Amino acid sequence: MSVRIETDTVTYQKTVLPCGLRVVTETIPSVRSVAVGLWVDVGSRDEAEEEAGITHFIEHMVFKGTERRRTHQIAQRIEYVGGYLNAFTTKEHTCYYVRVLDEYLDRALDTLIDLAFRPRFPEREIEKEKEVILEEMKMYEDTPDEYIFDLFEELVYAGHPLGRPIVGREETVRSFTRAMLLDFMARHYTPDRMVLAAAGRLRHERVVALTERLLRGVAPRPTNNRQRQPVPAYRPGERIERRSVQQAHLVLGGRGYDLHHPRRAALTVLNTLLGGGMSSRLNQNIRERYGYCYNIYSFVNLHADVGDWGVYMGTDPRRVARAEQLIRRELERLVQEPVGRRVLTHAKNQVKGTLMLGQENMSSRMMRLGRQELYFGRYYSLDEALQEADRVTAEEVQAVARELFAEQPYSKVVLLPE
């Protein structure tokens, strides 16, 4: 199967290889670099209880040597030509990515496919990496403005894998064996659940030909009919912890929309209005007017079948109650009062500007390509995204505020100094 879409400046193409892997590209002739990502449709929410953290652990371990290269050779292969190689794991997918000059495209593809299809998982490296991951856990716990989000998700998705930290738990990480890693990869790293996304100065036909050559011998596997665990009904909760911190940290929020929700664009505009920058209502009314905080913002997380929203703030412990009152007042204001036309226009311009500026970076374009294919199985052009934002009305924004802020109780997490 092959798809081609052309605009004035970009050519998008998609090809499904015989083994089932999808190749999606954006050709941008005006640049001299390419960003390539190998996406795997598996994240921490796909783990069994005893596997918590294994997706993230595998993402680390593939860099510890493949059938063709040792650890230092993997990094050197990209860095010695001025490129950048990294990876990340989310709740729903894993991505290995490279950015290089366009003349090294074949090297980038070769490296990524080697990592995902031919890791060795040396026993000695597995034991060493366990200690690395445990140190990573401690790092997060020592960073309250990150750790608090793990506690918040644990409340919002109580009893579900989405509520677990991506890095897992100490007892599960210590239990991982080479056989467990290989078994998990065999179940989830199948070509039909992979997307190769590339953006920059490239020819789609060459990317396809190189990828096919590198995957020679990889046979298609039966479609993996994965059934993700359904998310239970939302039950609000509250958690207050005392830790060795100087500031109090607060997150207030609840369940939101999924990625396919028809009001997704209106939620993005609402989030921008509420806490999406220095001109947002939270920043202007709580930081600038009262001086209660240095950092305050709102956030939205959109997953395939569910989502969440919230407000984060760090403040003096004596001001937590008053600050929470002020946040709730801003939320109530959005429920009760329609947004003015000029304010709405400014918020939509901010959303559109962020979208357009992001497209000037090849890595951002590649990330957008990969996510679109994984979640929607299709290409959303920049014009389509801009039009979606333009269509948002004040009535839609208020309707979203009522659904999320007024029709469900909030969950709350507070970290206080010991």
TrEMBL record:
Entry's family note: Belongs to the peptidase M16 family.
Span of domain Peptidase M16 N-terminal: 22-168
Cofactor(s) essential for the protein: Zn(2+)
TM helices/strands, residue ranges: none
GO molecular function: metal ion binding; metalloendopeptidase activity
Organism: Rhodothermus marinus (strain ATCC 43812 / DSM 4252 / R-10) (Rhodothermus obamensis)
Record-annotated Peptidase M16 C-terminal domain positions: 175-350
Domain of life: Bacteria
Name this protein carries in UniProt: Peptidase M16 domain protein
GO biological process entries: proteolysis
Pfam entry (one): Peptidase_M16_C
